[in-house]
Amino acid sequence: MSYKPQYTPGETKIAQNRRNHMDPDFEMKKIRNINDEDIVSVLGHRNPGENYKTVHPPLDEMDFDEDLMKELVDPIPGAKQGTRTRYIQFADSMYNAPAHPYDRARTYMSRFRGVDTGTLSGRQVIEIRELDLEKISKTLLETEFFDPAKTGLRGATVHGHSLRLDENGLMFDALQRYVYNEKTGRVSYIKDQVGRPLDAPVDVGEPMDEEHLKEITTIYRSDNVGIREDKEALEAVLTIHESRTDGGYGLGVFKNDLKAKLGDDK
Amino acid sequence: MEPIKAIDVKIFPHRRLKPGTSEKILNELLELEGAIRFLVNGESLPNIVGYGPARGTSVNHPDRKIITVKGKKVELLVSVGEIVVTIKQENLEEFVAETKNILEKILNFGFDVKIGLFTRTKTTVSDYLKLDYGIEENFDPSLVGMVDPKTNSKETVKLIR
């Protein structure tokens, strides 16, 4: 069966931005360059230049029982080499961050292979083999998925997505992993994602303009585009809610069943 | 103790304040007539990392700074989100008007100024427990509503004048 995925309902720019995120064929605009080594040091799982630690020998060298599924599914590079599973975690501010946890979950699932994601109210984790993680992190950090001020790279102590921004427009971070340079107007990470100090700061560029963020955000907000302005999205949400409730309570189904049991169905 | 007529004024800026800005605002507010006490509230900033792989290392948060208020050094323990001022009833109108002027002059973003009761007015069980367990000696009734139930007032309350 062949069909064209629709990703998410909605007729506003917010819905379109969500579809752009989820569509693997849509190329996100690249807006900054970060060295591979800098990404490795910010992630904090291994030292730059260090070999990948492995948890099992390469798949080619292992003996398996005959398994049709193993022939059907092509393993991702990290799995082939047997590298460890590691993570990257983001916190997205409610003040028009480019992405948000649910959008990230859906995006990760439709764009990348072999990922395990976890969605929480204030943060979103992606777990995958370390080798592939670094490639994915590069995409997530260099494109419009990431804004230095409104998105935080946080492994622990993530609190801050729902708080007011500071005077420079930065999201609250109790560990202050990233700092804003008032002279250059650029943000740089001085700690890795769990708060261990880095040897050299990692520059992640200038925060995006607030007006531009309003254009590319995936968050419905009443001071930008409210969910009630999006008739189609609202209709889809209400339909799902109604069907779930009806189906969950078994309305119209159990009633007849009960009647039959009572001998009342004639 | 003689009851006094006082009310709270809450200053709620639309952005979290930097230590420098908080210092400016506090110094200007202290010049005004009738202010009894100031409560600087906000998201607490840890000194050392509490959990995770970096546990035990120092945070060095740029917002956790020592500011000078009327010549006295005060350590900011929070990222300033709101300032509650208890004000004498008779100075209220003038104070609110002046505060709005000061904030408009210093801040380049929005703010709200609200009037009401934003601090506790009665001594609570935890206040009495502090006395009983010897955490505090000679509890000052004017501190009711200002001190976090879990902390010692010596650490969080500063007498400016």
**What is the chain-wise order of helices and strands of chain B?**
EHEEEEHEHH
Radius of gyration of chain B: 17 Å
Bin the strand percentage of chain B: 25-35%
Order of helices and strands of chain A: HHHHEHEEHEEEEHHH
Basic shape of chain A? globular
Decide which structural class fits the backbone of chain B: alpha+beta
Please give the domain count of chain B.
Answer: 2
Q: β content of chain A, as a range?
A: 15-25%
Integer average pLDDT of chain A: 91
Q: Please list the strands of the largest sheet of chain B in the order they lie side by side.
A: 2-5-1-6
**Mean pLDDT across all amino acids of chain B:** 87
Distance linking N and C termini of chain B: 21 Å
Q: How would you sum up this structure, described in words?
A:
The complex is a heterodimer of chains A (266) and B (161). By secondary structure, chain A is of the alpha+beta class. Chain A is built from nine helices and seven strands; from the N terminus they run H-H-H-H-E-H-E-E-H-E-E-E-E-H-H-H. In chain A, the strands form two sheets. A four-stranded antiparallel β-sheet of chain A has the order 2-3-1-4. A three-stranded antiparallel β-sheet of chain A has the order 5-6-7, with helices on one face. In chain A, strand 6 and strand 7 (197-205) form a beta hairpin. The radius of gyration of chain A is 23 Å and the shape is globular. The two termini of chain A are 43 Å apart. The model of chain A has no long low-confidence stretch (mean pLDDT 91). Chain B is an alpha+beta fold and 161 residues long. Chain B folds into two domains: 6-119, ACT domain (Alpha-Beta Plaits, 2-Layer Sandwich), CATH 3.30.70.260; 122-161, no CATH class. In chain B, 25% of the residues lie in helices and 27% in strands. Chain B contains four helices and six strands. In chain B, helix 1 runs antiparallel to helix 2 (92-106). The mean pLDDT of chain B is 87. The interface between A and B is medium-sized, with 22 and 26 residues.
